Every structure is written in C-alpha cells, then in structure tokens.
C-alpha cells in the first residue's frame, strides 16, 4: 500500500533552529557585504564592551584590532577592560543566540535582543569554519579563562572546542578574537574608523584604540573621567503594551489577583488607578490574572486607554548631556562653532525617550558639501539607511535657509556643518532588525525637529554676529588703508592739498560725524558746529566745546561750566538717524588763527568707534 | 607735424584728470567716492539698429568706496590714471597691457592681482572717457596685422612722420598696421575695394598672383580674430575712403564670427563698436554654397561647429535671408571648407575664377 503523500511530506518537516534561520537570513543582522560584515561584528563587540564597562562602573578602554588573515578573510580582535564574564556564562554569552540579560529589562541600553555578538560568532564559523576564541578574566587574583567556541546551528547551543586557563596580562576584561570573510575599507562613512569616531563623540568617557591592518594605530582619547549616570530600570508603561505581551504577562505573573498584578507589573499604576482600570474593563479586582482569556485581555487593554495614566518616569534614560556632546564634537572636529541641546524627555507609545542634538560649523568642513548627519540611537551610531531614518526626515523637514544654510532643491542642507542627533529611549522603534534607521514615529520626529531648530538658531545668531564683525572689519580696512591712499593719490595727481576724509569715514562707518567750521565775522569769528548721524539709530549725547574764549549769540544756548581759565560749553543733543544739527555762536575779538586752533570737540555718551571728528568719552546721558 | 597726436594726448590727459578730479570733489562734498559705469555683462549688450553695431545698454552699476572691492577699484583707477598721465602722456611713452600689470607691482595695495584685472581697468577707463586705450598709449600684446596695396599714407611715429606707399615702399610682408591707427593719415590711392583675408596663406597667394594690381585691391590680413587696430583701419578704409570692404575667410561658423566682428562689433569691446565696426563690410566667402558649386575639398562639421551654427541662427548679426539660407545649407551638407581648399583647383583658380566671379556677382567689378 502506498504511503499517503501527507506522511511523506511530514517526514521532511522539522523544527528550524534560530541559528539555522539566521544562517539562511544573515543579511537581516547586517552580515550582507564584506565591509558591512566587519563593521557589524566590530559594532556588536564594542557595544557589548561599553555596556559591560558602564554597568560595572569602569571607564571603558577598548581596543579594536583588524588584521589580514589571508584570502578574503580578516581577523578581528576586540579587547576591553570590563568586568569580565564568569567562566560558566562564557559559552552561552558568545555562542547562543537570544541569550542576554537585557531583553526583558525596560531601560535604555545599547544591545537589546542578545543576538549581536553570537551572530558575529555564527557568521565567523560559517565563513571560515574556525571557532571564536575568548579570553575573560573577572579579577586580578582570578585565572583568565580561554575558550574556543562554535554554535551548534541545529540546537542553538554552544559547542566548546577548547577550554583552558591561560596567562593574561590584563587585571580583568574580555578579549574576543574571530576570523571572518570580510574586508577593511577606508575613506568612507561606513567604515570601522568612522564608526569609532562617531562612537567616541557620544561616549566621551571612553577611550578607543584602533589598530588597522597596516599596523597604523589611531587613538580616540576620552574627554572626561566620569561615567554617565546609569539608566534605571522601569516597569512597562501600560500605554505601550501590546496584546500578546499583556497576555504573556497575565499568564506568567506570580500575583493571584488582578489589581495587585496591575499595580506591580506596570509603572504609573497605583491602588486607585488599578481599581479604575478594572472598573473600566468590567473585571473584578479579585480576578485571578491566570484565568483571563483573550476577550477580557482585550477589554483590559482598552481600559488602559480610557483611564488617565501618568506618563512614564524618565529616569530610565541616560542623556549624553549638552556639555558632553559639545566636548565630543570639539575633540573630533576642528570647527569655528559648536552648539548642543538636550531636550527634556517625552513619550512615544508608552516608551520614554529624549532627543539631543548638536551642530558643528566651519573650520575644515567642506563649504559646498552636503551636511554630514551623525545619527545615534542609545549612544550607538547608525551608519546605514540614512535615507530611511526619521532623523534624516526631520532634518529634511526643516527650512534651513532660515538658519543660514543652503538647501538646494529641498532635502539635506549644504554647508560646512556636521549635525549630531541622539535619540535615547527604553525602546527605539527601528525600521528593521538590523537597527539601522529609526522609524518615522511622529512624536520622535517632532522632538528631533525641535532639537535641531534649537541648535540651528544658535548657529544663525553666531553667523549673523560673525557677519556683522566681518563687515565692521571690512569697513575698517576701507577707512584705515584704502580711503587715505585714494585721497593722497588724487591730491598728488591734481597737485592740490589732501582733502579731509573724516566726513567720508563717518559715512562709510555709519557713524556720528562732528565738525567745526570757522568763518570771519565782524571783528571776531562765527563758529558753526555740524553734527550728522549716519548710523541707523538715534543718538543722544552731550557735546562739549571747551575753550577760553567768551561765546555770544549761541543758538541753541549751551550749559556753561567754568573750569578755571576755560569754560565748558555743553549741548545736550538727540540726533535722529540720517539727520543733522547745527550749532552756531560768535566769538568777538578772536582772530581767525586763534579760532582754527581750538581744542577738539568732545562727545560724551557715544562709543568711541561710533564717532568721527570729535573725541568720544563714556558717560551717562539722561533721557 | 605732431599736432594731431598732441591734440589727442591733451584730450586723453584732460579726460583722465577729470576722473581723478571727480574723486577729489566727492571728498570735498563729503560724498563717498564712487564712479558709475555701464554694466559690463552680456545681458547689457544691445544691437543698435541705427549704427548696426553692438553697444552697451542702459543698465549701469556704481563702484563705491563703501565696499572694499569698490574702494580698491577706485584706488587702482587713481594709480592707473596717474601712470597714464605722468609716464605715458607727459613723456610721450607707451607700454603694453602686460607691462601695466608688471608696473603695478610697485603700487603696494593698489597692485593688480592678475593681468585680466589690469586689462579690465583699461577697458573701464575707455568706457568712462569714451576714448580708446591707444589714446592712453596702451599697446596690445599682439603684433598689428599687415596691409598690402596701392595706397599712400602718412604715419606719425614717436620718431617723426613717415610717408609710406603700401605696395611700392614695403616688402612682400606688407605694411605693418600700427597699434594706434589714428596716427595714420591716408594721402592718396587708386584702390577700388578692400579684401580682408583670414589666413596668411591666402594673403600670400593673392600677393604672389598680383591680385592687388590686377584688380586695384587693398589686401588686409585679419590674422584670425582681428585685433582692434585691424578693425579700425578697415572701418577707416570703408568710411573715410568709401571703399567696399570684402571679408574673405574659411567656410566655417567661427570664420563667420570673424566677419561679424569686423562688420558689427564684438561683445567684449561693445563700448568701441561705433569706433571699430564697419557695418558696410560684406562677406565674400567661402560660402556654404561655394562648397557645393565649386565642389571643394571639405571636412565634416564637428559637434561644436553644429552648435555654433545653430546659435548663429538666433544671433541678430546673422538675421538676414542671405545668412539664414547659407547656414541652413551648411547644416544640411554637414561640411566645412578652408579658403585654401581652392588650391585643389590650381594655384590661380582663386584669383582668376573664384574672386572675379564673386566680385561680379556682388556688383563690385
């Protein structure tokens, strides 16, 4: 009798291990091209080292070394000064997918799923057949353990090919060495060097050392000696929870009654809120959570939306801070201007998040280039899929022309600038498993835009100040160097006396011009003082004309103050922009010669740089 | 008698002193020194229907000492004016455009950064004073072209007056046209027309064949795109002596532009068009129809040739039935010919067949 076809087919069906699945779908985890595979492996290793060091309160000191291993292969060595890993956990940490301490914790951390480094190990063994070699040491007095590991791809369990105690010169830390089909590239954004540079910008407390295949060593020095404030762990917030997760939580809780389950499984639910939720869901507070079926779970989820629940706490986030982003940019770029901002926390679908941004401008950055965007999620640089990322979209949404940057044809702005955007959250909504781009969540995009506009405004202020200064400098060049030469040259050619350039200087500078002319009048002279305001603002000041001669018929009348032999004649004037005033008086029995050698006029209450034709002194001029 | 020359020198000096004086007066009037010039961009070039030449339009721009750029230009203009007055006009000396650039090395902050800047300064002065650089004794770099034919003239040189017959007193190289054509006075001639020739080879062919004597022609060598002095002498031959001027070039779009610049002026020197351009000049050949009629040896039109021909179709200088027909014909046949291609028909063909045929056709002989 023939075997039924379904039975035949059933023979071929079997469970697929996760390792097998990823063996066939490795591009999901970032192991598609040779350069990218290297970058992904380095990134996973460095992320792990940073997280481990920070959790243990150690200032990270991480060495990445890439060597040619012949053929298309490279060897990667990542060594840290972290807390090390206890012997029993080494195999599972490196050679078992989805093994980790962070998947269930709700707090900001770099790695989340526990796939990263094991995926690199898997990729290494798939492309070279060689095991990954680990050395880890947890204390100066404890031995260093050496392992050679591969993953059994059908069981997702580690296979230990070597296990011994070795001598290691480090007091503690972990060293991972693996070989894989990959390639080391230089001179582009998606490279190990640029990745480490970006990482160094947002991790100013860490030192990174990169040894390139040609032996060249680059050190990214730390800028501060203090660790960032560690992020706190929080309970999930009801707003962000999904039905499946809720059902799982109900099934596996230790609580026997619904109200306490709600109180102790979620953040921001107190006694009263728990009761309100039960009421809204038409469920008894005493119900056993384990007995709640699908329909009631749905009601519960609806009730979360009906009842007013406070936003989740934000101390689970660890911002880099404005000053550290500033320091990070300062040490990695030589520029003219840096501005940074750290926004306060907000919430997207029940997950707290915050956005930080920075801009560095000028210096050696290319003037015509598109602005470089450095994207970070939980302190991890995002290197791929820039075009598909919410951060890029937020940059594109801003009208950069309003902030002194060009934006030809919309899209990314151009100019000598680097933008940094960091999104920190207990849950970063990535567009895919390879964690390259942040999804377009409106709340996040809005915060990114606000943060960028904040630093862009600061840039604009800086640039307009610069422009003002350079205009001022340009004008000074005109009045100090060029105008006197023109006056001298034209008078030489014409063989005439050099003209007084003071009025022209006042005009070019947009200053206050003061001059006194003297004409013969009867047995004395008539003095005329002209005041012209070439600036764009009203000028209120006191004009002092101090000399020994008696003054008659003054129009307007000055205030007189006797100073021994001399008398100070004071006029209080207020001259509108673009207008002028004349003061006239007579000095009988004064010769023309005496009148032309009168002392300089003095203007009180106008900045020295704003007056031509008179001395300027500081002073208070009442309204 | 140096009267003419002295008179022009005096005018030039007054004009330059006028510019300097206006700066001085601006200082006295408490005005920021400035000078107004026609805007020297392609957008401000107009075809003047009355004079049939290219001139600057009405748009002007002001150079003011309010900006560093403007202040520097005024300073450099003052230095240049001083040099022209004191070195050139007062001392009866001259220098080339390139020499001016080197002279400015001693001017400290007024020195020119590159020669195009000093060249432009001289052009600016020409525009402001409505005079020519020759009036300031500024010489171009290139040699003047040559002229050959039965014409007697008087040239006032720095070493006195010279009376020269442009065929009998010169060698086969011809009479060298001086850079300042206004130092020439035409005395007498028995010419019936002038042929302006693009290439030296064709010029030599016509002299060797005695074309000038056989047809009472004055031959002027254009040497490619003609220098100002060449254009000026053609204009004077055309207008003072009333001689028909016939332009004889290769048969390609670039040569048609040589004709256009002789007849109507060039964009770069639009301020001098009315002084340099000879709108009565006519094109004799090589015409695209000649390529067909005489079955000349040809080259294929290049991409650039085709582009140039197309742009000539929308150029007002070529806006006539004659040119439209010829240019379209050339685009059709896709060929171009050099004037020396006539040699393929025998060395005498051009002087015994082609030119007489064309001159008859045009009603010149």
SSE topology:
The complex is a heterodimer of chains A (623) and B (365).
Chain A: H1 5-12, H2 18-24, H3 34-55, E1 61-68, E2 73-80, H4 90-95, H5 116-128, E3 132-137, E4 144-152, E5 157-166, E6 173-181, H6 192-202, E7 207-211, E8 217-220, H7 243-252, H8 258-265, H9 271-280, H10 294-306, H11 322-332, E9 337-342, E10 346-348, E11 351-361, E12 372-377, E13 380-382, H12 390-397, E14 417-425, H13 442-494, H14 502-509, E15 512-521, E16 524-533, E17 539-547, E18 552-555, E19 559-563, E20 566-575, E21 580-587, H15 592-596, E22 602-604, E23 611-612, E24 615-617
Parallel strand pairs in A: 1-7, 12-14, 15-23, 22-24
Antiparallel strand pairs in A: 1-2, 2-6, 3-4, 3-6, 4-5, 7-8, 9-11, 10-11, 11-14, 12-13, 15-16, 16-21, 17-20, 17-22, 18-21, 19-20
Helix pairs in contact in A: 3-5, 6-11, 8-9, 9-10, 12-13
Chain B: H1 3-28, E1 34-38, E2 45-48, E3 53-56, E4 60-64, H2 68-89, E5 95-96, H3 97-103, H4 115-129, E6 138-139, E7 146-148, E8 151-157, E9 160-165, E10 175-176, E11 184-189, E12 193-197, H5 200-208, H6 211-215, E13 217-221, H7 228-239, E14 245-248, H8 253-263, H9 273-276, E15 282-285, H10 288-293, E16 299-300, H11 303-313, H12 321-333, E17 335-336, H13 349-361
Parallel strand pairs in B: 5-6, 12-13, 12-14, 14-15
Antiparallel strand pairs in B: 1-4, 2-3, 7-10, 7-13, 8-9, 8-11, 16-17
